[in-house]
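Whether sequence alone determines local backbone shape is best considered at the level of individual chains. We regard such an encoding as a compact summary of how the chain folds. The sequence in question and its structure tokens are set out directly beneath this paragraph.
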Amino acid sequence: MKITRIDNPYPAISIDDFIPSEAMVRAASESFNEVGTGDSSSNEYSTFEWVRYGGDDGQVQYCSKLGRENVPTPALLLLDYIATHFDPNKIFGLTGNTFPDTSHFGGGMMLTPNSNNEGGYLGMHVDATAHGIHTNWKREYSAILCLSEEYDSSFDLRIHNGKEHGTIPYKFNRLNVFKCSNNSWHGLPEITRGMDRKTLGVMYWSKMTDEDKKTAVKAKFNNNLEFK
């Protein structure tokens, strides 16, 4: 596996060919079609549902409902593979106490849609410091697996630390991981029309210290940060 590292604007790595079986990556990508509206009167009805975010939310993005029970089996297998085969403590060398959330309460399936001109994009934002259930857990790393075989540079993640810009390129079966902080801004402008950007995310956490609790932030968007 080829590993690429960057330090600025904040630490991130990319690991190519992360999943040994490309066939399973395709199966996970295909399982996105199993997720529907949750409306039994709709042709898209499925036992799995998207949480849909519109432009008023600073993004046009679909995410699986929170929890591993809301993820189709092929995608869940890859989420668990990431959690059991990637250790950011060893790869980054910045922490020694982080652990994955195998309930996949945060992360899971993420779809930026534009195959039907939905206008999918993800506004520049930082993620919440604290876990939604385990409020004494601090977010340390986001690990994102790229699933779309058809992609272009519009899928690349734009990152920003408040001063400097950077890019984490998208590629099929690449695991992109970045260190989270109060200034780990990230997002992407509208992706190319006719395409969908599919990813799976596993979040890594640590136990909060008293100092962490003082500086914890909620998820927030900043529309004044330009994409470059």
About this structure: The first strand starts at residue 3 and ends at 6.
